[in-house]
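[SOLVED] Predicted holo structure with flavin-adenine dinucleotide

Edit: marking solved, answer below. Original request kept for reference. I posted the sequence and ligand SMILES and asked for the 3D complex as structure tokens.
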Amino acid sequence: MNRTVTVPASKIAVLDEVDVVVCGGGPSGFVAAIAAARQGARTLLIEQYGFLGGMATAALVGPIVKFNWQGRRIVGGIPWEFVETLAKHDGAIIDWPSGAVPFDVEVYKRIAAKMVENAGVSLLLHTRVTDCLLNRPGKVDYVVVENASGRHAVKTKYVIDCTGIGAVVVKAGLPWRLRKKAQNQLQPMSLLFRLGGVDTDHLENTQMKEEGVKYFNRRLRTAFENSELGRKMLFGGPWLIHGSTIRRGEVTVNMTRYPGSGADVKDLTAAELRLREDIARIVPLLRQLLPELKQSYLIDTATQVGIRETRSITALYNMTVDDILQPKPFPDTVAKGAHPIDVHQYADSGQEVRFISKDYNIPYRALAPRGSQNVLVGGGSVGATAEAFASIRVQAQCMALGEAAGTAVALCLEQGGCAVHEPAGAAVRQRLHEQGAIVDL
Ligand SMILES: Cc1cc2nc3c(=O)[nH]c(=O)nc-3n(C[C@H](O)[C@H](O)[C@H](O)COP(=O)(O)OP(=O)(O)OC[C@H]3O[C@@H](n4cnc5c(N)ncnc54)[C@H](O)[C@@H]3O)c2cc1C
């Protein structure tokens, strides 16, 4: 339908006035909020669900990678503090040689909220950021939020878009593009689920512990490929792992796939419906295919389908595959990565993995949309091509980028409220280094 309707102008109450609004409480968002608040910024974190963690808790994706490269830690700071705190509360395993950190979803939700609270962040859950009001191009004055209490505005000096899909960047009229390789070919969405009643003592595969992403269950893949269902169905892996559960007898299963865009509500709706049906057919078959799964049962499907990629900002610096494969020593390095270039094929059951030879650097400029005065991003909408993002896209890196964005905003405030491109990237790096982040200084 091509019809339009005019929405009448309305006055809405101003709910709050803060230094920084962080939009989205996923891995990048809750870390960004903690970083900003610990450095004295009055920080408001806004999340549409009733809990924090984004894809880690709502989409059940895990384990958290990539903390290590060849046995050396490459992400420290708040992300590592978070997983250490999880482990102290029996909510994570942090000593796998691969550096991958499986976790317990419920402990994750609780500890993320506790750390946010302890940092002095104000938190609005069940609240969606729906718009931005600008006083000049690139300068957001208010974010508009909607929740059970109605529609309100929040006045702010800075905004960090951690929605994973660049939702605020779009509303702020800042430049972005979809990361598709070809027409509509984003990486597929996947609905994860958890199984109980699994003989994990025998299924427990040391490969995931040792090799991280290289691992998938080959025995199951072969059996599934040769089944009637497997011949018809788009699937990946399958990865049966301690990812978003660490309990004996339970695994997270990552194997469903839906080709479509997580920035298109029709695709999102279709994916949720299709993949829950797929899971209902997959689970009984898994019981037949592997003896370790004979007694298994479905615990749950994720709250929402997992979205691997959507929008990239057009940043002051856009990461390319060269920056991943031939790492550069940026003066404004704010995070490091080492995950392989990991592309789940759009329309078949394949996966293209290109391993890297050395850990690489991500500069502060990749978080600043071109033309932005007071908006930064953390996490999923970092300026990067599809290939580069296929490596950057994992949680530890998104958390590290969140810490960088929160820290940069705190520095901007200290410098009298300067534009986000003005603080020297080297100063952001230096501050991160002092906070225990790993930025090769
Ligand atoms: C299928 C799949 C498997 C993956 N496997 C792994 C893995 O094994 N290990 C790993 O480390 N990474 C994995 N990832 C990547 C991981 O999900 C991302 O690295 C991470 O979630 C990015 O964090 P983020 O904070 O940028 O975004 P998200 O996790 O997407 O968080 C965004 C948050 O913003 C909220 N939000 C969105 N819009 C609004 C709005 N308008 N108003 C308010 N709130 C809003 C959302 O509810 C969400 O909480 C996987 C991803 C997928 C999809």
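OP edit: The mean pLDDT is 94. Thanks to everyone who chimed in.
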